[in-house]
What does this fold into?
Amino acid sequence: MNNVTVQTTIGEMVKQRPARSRVFEKLGLDYCCGGKLPLADACAKSGLDAQRVLAEVVASDNQSLATTDDLIDADTMKLSDLADHIQTTHHAYLKQELPRLGFMVRKVAAVHGDNHAWMIDVDSVFGAFAAEMQSHMVKEEGMLFPLIRSMGTGQPGPAHACGTGLAAPIRAMEHEHDNAGNAMERIRALCDNYTPPEGACNTFRAMLDGLQHLEKDMHQHVHKENNVLFPKALAFEKHCNETAGA
It folds into this structure.
């Protein structure tokens, strides 16, 4: 078991043991876009006792020793395999779920917006989020992921063919991840932590449930990229460049 302290970043904690993400999900701690923060700083921002949270993490570790972890251990995967996993799992989920949720959000806002004015804002925020994520996936699948896959083959990827490396496209993707995280936080706040209002119809409830699942999947998705895939790809690129220049 890896030793962790309140000075360990929460992204590193989840990278070491993916099941820890459940603790952070429960407490509302951002381990994906905010994964570079030490646990102490992340807890301070949220008004939580870092030592108590650390104790929950350790308890989660002890419990998971006796169970089968159903979360992917991204850190053990090859770069190409991890890129494939993200594309076939999280991108595929978004491509199916964003249109479905978009339809429900628009419908609920149109039908219930007069009585629940916050749904008008949810519709606006979700629409911008969905549009950016669609564009985001096109860029990752068309440029960044092929470049990362090519690194293991020694063949130039599309960005290398244009004389560029990984740093710039990764910075752009991380910026868009930040935008997505901010959008999901805004939606959760508007929806009162996805709590159905009194008398909510089944479509209203299904929409809130779908948004909650979307946020959880986005946390796993962004964590695997920001805290595992991107740092490993940058380190591998640096190693290749140093080897080539030796």
Q: What stands out?
A: Residues 156-163 have pLDDT under 50 and may be disordered.
